[in-house]
Amino acid sequence: MIDETYKKENMGQDRPAGAGPDFEVSDQARRQAHAFLSNYTSDVSGVCSALYELGGMVVMHDPSGCNSTYNTHDEPRWYDKDSLIFISGLSQIDAIMGNDDKLIDDIVRAARDLKPAFIALVRTPIPMMTGTDFDAIARIVELETGIPTWYFPTSGMNSYIIGAGTALEKVASCLVEEKAAGPAKAGKEEIDPAKVGREEIDPSRAGKEEIDSSRAGREDDEAWGSGRQPGQFLSASGPFRVNLLGLTPLDFSVGSGRASLLAWLRDHGFIVQSVFAMGDGEAGDLRRQIGSAGLAHASLVVSSVGLPAARVLEKRFGIPYVTGLPCGQFGPELLRALTEACMTGSSGKSLFAGQENGSVSGSERKFIIGEPVEALSLARAADLAGGRDWQVICPLELDRDLESCDCLQISSEADLMEILKEGDRIVADPIYRRICPERAEFISWPHEAYSGRIYRRQIPDLLSDFWSRLL
Amino acid sequence: MKKIAVYGKGGIGKSTTISNVAAVMAGQGLKVMQIGCDPKADSTALLRHGKPVETILNLTRQKGKKLALEEMVTPGFRGVLCVEAGGPPPGLGCAGRGIIAALEMLKEKGAYERYQPDVIIYDVLGDVVCGGFSMPMRNGYADQVFVVTSGENMSIYAAANIAMAVENFKRRDYAKLGGLILNRRDVKDEDKKVRQLAEDIRSRIVGDLPRSGLVAEAEDLAMTVVEAFPDSSMARDYEKLTLEIERVSGIDWPGDGQTNR
Fold first, then answer.
1. Portion 103-132 of B in contact with A at CB < 8 A
2. What is this model's ipTM?
3. pTM value?
4. Cβ–Cβ of B171/A140 closer than 8 Å?
5. Choosing among A61, A96, A128, A129, which should be mutated to test the B contact, i.e. which has the most B CBs within 10 A?
């Protein structure tokens, strides 16, 4: 159902949904202005979200204006979990006079008291415009505190995809330790065929993230030719270890999404080596776990923000990665790709590359709008179950790994309205309902990074049967 | 890749001096990129026979992120790669921010990797009046700063300010002060004043350029002295200055270990 209240207040009683604004605007303004839609969480909040649980001190250099929305709108963990997130309180006179020493002194004093594991300086629009030299400030802070200090050149002009992606990339570069002795990647030569099989798992080697053998092997026993379940294969040193990359509340909220993903991996015989970067314990636990990410056999990237980190881990440690969310029947396909990556040490071809979505073979026009890895996974799950022709629309920055996917990158409200007016079925955050035709079937898929807490209770666990609503 | 930035009071002859130095370096076989950091966008005019270079900021305004690197870099005399940051019209906008945006755009487009110049020379407008004008001396940009000055009081005052900025930025690992370039105006006690300045800022005079009518004549031809009057004593003076800048900055000539030091 269309949002009637909004329609009456903002669009006029008689204006149909999707009809666009009732005034003349230039084409350029038309493509830049948003009259009905919201904007996604910014890159500044993206950095904070990705680093929230890692025990660092994050400082947004800002007057505490628009960026205070981080704790009010973008961070569902704010009241439940402590984190050292600060805003510097930049004043006009400090900006004019270039009073960087005040910022440096504040950070150094706080760091000496709080002893964070690292310090992150996050740029916002004002210091960007005045050209504050954060590289130099970070260098001085690091020299004075002895604490690793990073600078994130965010601008508030990009979405959380850029901010969280850059932050997790930094985590992969700086917090993951060089490996200790022992093989980290499972090349083919490291697999001992004699040990392949569930019975070879030695429970004594299992860490706390290890599989619960009683839950393993429940499905797809014949799915992969040999009769064994893919995840049952072992490296020479035991079950395959997997990093889970791209997990933040901005894409997965704080519901059951994280737990479902961990359970899926465990159920299929994998050990979760690390999670970038949401945990359920103390900050130090998650950071220690991430420190050992170099020991994984492969990474599973579950959202765009994990892709830059995946590339770093591949470059540093030769760890291959597979991208996708195990929704519905896409799960076994993803499982096979992940196991192959573990066994061969190669990332292989993207599961989304060459996938044709939204072709004209069907009579209905069907659109999914959202974070591309999640949306592409949903479309794939629907496609495999016969619900074909879903076209993915990404209103966010598209990672270079996803450029070859069949995904329309559209961020302009006007362009979205143009394409959606032909839509028969649309899956999107409820805010998009405002520009969808009234006749279209609207499937609500709230996104924390878009509508914040408004529809949080309705955010689905994508490993549940949500995908079946697309059939 | 060695990077130097040249500062000094407006009108003191920075662009003329730098263009001649760039021409000499190019004649030695070095690949030189000269980047004008001034909204007037006339740093490289003498290397281009007066033909204007499209500025990075104008191109950015017209084409946004789609602008190609080749559009920003134009070859000049002896193949010197000419780049102009550009900036807003007088009295409008923010020239300092413009320099930051232009230099970031060059980096983003991979200019240094693509052209791999042996030497980059930043020609910076006037004094270090704000963060934008300190950009060329920041870490990752210039390694050495040279200041052009005459014996005129305002010029010496500006040079002292620039030297102070370099000193203040020490903690930030910015460029170091390479020295003063004396561009003579034949004012009273010129030698004494500039030597005193060098002493005060604990630096030295790396070049001494006499006042010469040939400079103005070459400018009328929209050329460097090195191109217009290659056999003149003024051309020799620019060569001498270039050798000293190369020595201070650690710039070696290309070839099999051939060195100017």
1. 130-132
2. 0.75
3. 0.79
4. yes
5. A129
